[in-house]
Amino acid sequence: MKKLLIMILICAPFLSVAQDVEYNERFEQLGSMLPTPNVYRTASGAPGEDYWQQKADYSIKVKLDESSNKITGSETITYYNQSPHPLNYLWLQLDQNMRAEGSDSELISTATFFNDTIPAKYLEQYVANGGNSYDFPGGFNIESVKNADGEAMNYLVQKTMMKIRLPETLKPGENISFSIDWNYFINDRMKGGGRSGFEYFEEDGNSLYTIAQFFPRMAVYNDVEGWQNKQFIGAGEFALTFGDYDVEITVPDDFIVGATGMVQNAKEVLTKDQFKRYEKALKSTEQTFIVTEEEAIENEKEKSTSYETWKFKAENVRDFGFAASRKFIWDGQMVELESTKPFAQSFYPKEGNPLWEKESTKAVKNTLVLYSERTFDYPYPQATSVHAASIGMEYPMICFNFGRPDKNGEYSVRTQLGMTYVIVHEIGHNYFPMIVNSDERQWAWMDEGLNSFLESNVMFEYYPDLPYSDNIPQAITGYMKSSKDQQRPIMTNPEQVLRLGPNAYSKPAAALNLLRNTIMGPELFDESFKAYAQRWKFKHPTPADFFRTMEDASAVDLDWFWRGWFYTTDHVDISVDEVKYFRIAQDEADMEKNAKAPKGDLGEEEEEELNTDFSDGPSYISVSETPEFWFGEYRSKVDDEAIKARYADKHFYEITLSNEGGLVSPLLFTIEYKDGETEEKYIPAEIWRKNEGKTRKMLILDKEVSKIVFDPEGELADTDKSNNVFPKEESKTKLDEFKEKGE
Q: What Gene Ontology terms for biological process does this UniProt record contain (predicted)?
């Protein structure tokens, strides 16, 4: 034991680990930070053997009154208690109540600035009571709640939630049916914003309705939180349970309607020619116009006062939305996936052309293809993109998207880019969270971040000519190095997040791109990500289920990654402090070449430092015969001369690095050789495991180096490039050059 200790002490100065080790938690397992596995959710991240979830079926009839901009509806909900728990009451969401007078969203609204001159719209929408002040009577009016026998039920409206007190306990395995009648006024989105509402076109006197959160909806009851009855105040979106929908939508008879699910009476509500085109489009891989622009323009002129009813059915969806207008052009095509053939379609007014007829349905198709490759084949029968001004919002099988040309029909590359990526993003939400049904009210990043990651993959693969540069590590560095009092960890409720865009969208997406492209590699990442998607499709995953599945399916310990990227506001800033260059001395003449030669025997404290700037040439190390005690109890020995010969022509570079940003990171170097060739070196993040503030790495190379650059293209999200190069100089990424050119 004494000899072994002496050997360690002698070797210590030349080991490629940092000294003066400081302990911290960046490489500790997440452990108690994640919930304890159980029979519902396993340690592997998969659903457990006793996993359960509730079900809610809806039969809904609504009428849209164009003259008053009012929705009147009735619904019958059949709720299935598939939990092991008896329930004495039910919770429903009344999201329209956020627009009611005196709502929490109104009372807690804050203005970001109040200058001596402000736009009138800003004053009303953002300063005066959070957009609820334009003389708008918002919120649900609940007319009745009755049981299956038509008897009144006892209920309580608690802000944006409604509690139905059950007369008898709903036992496990039982179901209950009840009905609700209600009405509410539709908000003008131009005046007060909103995730749904209507847009009015002054030129022709028509409106375009994008309708959602339009009916009382069952809240989620699950094994993690019980009832998810957190109030809706704006940023936190929705937690919903799956079910089947039978919906009848009554509108003026010159309206065209797009909705969740498939229309059941297309022959009745379309003209003969339109119905023929519709049937053709369902089977064709070529874009087919069901309602042409000429028909839509003609339709705008007459404003019918008669009504007709469109009927839709949708199975195993968590929500329902629809869009309606007499202004709609409608085109679509079938998309051939490996096991399904969904219908991609678009609804848009003439104000969207020529951009929308050219790009919308194509973007729907491209999204379905790539997302299906990375997760599972799109299981629903259709996916719909609807054009409306200044909105991007998603619901099962239907989404509402911005991107409008100028009045003369011209549009910039920027407009095309914005329109394309918002369609990709919102269509992509069919996967996250419409099918992989995470809790948006609690974890915005689980749908927005994962979806933004795949959005970027679609954009890079299908739209390389568009100047898209979002959701990658290079694009998030500005946010990550910003003041920490302006940031929150990704694992923060969306209502408490200061900057939702980078926090819930860009940063988690950049993290996943980093994980896929640099740390795990595409093949291993894609296999693990697909495992998560397939395990949790049509179920309710939590962050722990995602974290655990990614590790379980890959055999890669990623706790350090989740801890740093998702639980802290640390950033990547690795400093290349110094690089020492050594070669093996072949004779005394080599040792005399040292400008600052070490003195003393191996292992003793050096009185002078070796050369720290390799541009001045190497320092030489003398290799001596191995002392006898190094062999310990072994009866054989190494060949000292053979070892010396093996490394005689090698170039040794000892790199000292500091972690200035706090976020541990892999190391990615580009080595530039004197002969003009380059080579990349990747070192896993575990090199920081002993000391997360400072580390050293010895590179043994075949050629002499002229420059060593850390993270040259910014793919590790390093925030300060000025300390990435040795010998010291300014470095730029391709993204920097792209920005400098103004492209």
A: peptide catabolic process
DSSP structure class, residue 502: I
- Assign 69 to helix, strand or coil: coil
Amino acid identity at 241? T
Phi, psi of 230 (to 5 degrees): -65, 135
For β-strands 619-621 and 574-584, DSSP reports them as parallel
Cα torsion angle, 432, 434, 438, 440, sign: positive
Query: CB 4: neighbour CB atoms within 10 A?
Result: 10
- CB neighbourhood size of 479 (10 A): 20
3-state secondary structure of 257: strand
Phi and psi angles of residue 2, each rounded to the nearest 5 degrees, phi first: -65, -40
Long-range contacts of 584-591 (CB under 8 A, 24+ apart): 584/620, 584/621, 584/623, 584/644, 584/647, 584/648, 584/650, 584/652, 585/620, 585/621, 585/622, 585/623, 586/648, 590/620, 591/620, 591/622
Nearest to 105 by CA among 617, 647, 495: 495
Q: Which amino acid is at 430?
A: N
pLDDT recorded at residue 5: 34
Query: Any idea which residue has 């002229």 for tokens?
Result: 706
Which residue from 595, 441, 561, 579 is spatially nearest to 26, judged by alpha carbons?
A: 561
Q: E strand or H helix at 44, and its extent?
A: none
Q: What is the pLDDT of residues 44-92, one digit of tens each?
A: 999 999 999 999 999 999 999 999 999 999 999 999 999 999 999 999 9
Query: In sequence order, what DSSP letters do the residues of 430-484 get, joined into one string?
Result: TTTTTTB---TTT-HHHHHHHHHHHHHHHHHHH-TTS----SSHHHHHHHHTS-G
- Quote the longest CA-to-CA distance of the chain: 104
